[in-house]
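Appendix B, record 7
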Amino acid sequence: MNSKLIFYNIIRWFLLLFVQIFLLRNMIFYNLSTPFLYVLFLLVLPFGIPNFLLYLIAFGTGLTLDAFYDTLGVHSSACVALMYVRIAFINISLNRDSIDEPEPSLGNMGFKWFTLYATLCIFAHHIVLFFLEAFKLNEFIYTLTRALLSMVFTLFTVLLTEFIFHNRKSA
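Structure tokens (predicted):
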């Protein structure tokens, strides 16, 4: 991994967390749906990063959000769960030796693969996030509804951001 890619990912981390904390934090629709665009940073981390470092990056990203959202480890555990699903999905769906692309973005991997990948990762993140936030099962349907609606909203914002900022793979 070269220094240009490291610098690009650091800038992406700051921008996505800035947007999440200062713009999207208060964008809640009927107390049911909240977009979490910062997960895009975790989704498009390069393939070549070792798993241990991926977990540390996810934990640090979640811890940063926990500091601004006043949640005690909820975002950290949700980001680590997202990273676990990401690693498992990439290991199952791709042969790591034959990967030519630096990162799993929409332009590099294609719409179907990226949408399935993002859906599974965002679903894992949101289920952990909302059930730890609620921390009770007597509101199971409400919490599940919040997680699913937020997942759809987050997936929409992630795909929209990918369509806007990433170029198509050149043949």
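Remarks on this record: The first helix runs from residue 3 to 24. The chain has a mean pLDDT of 88.
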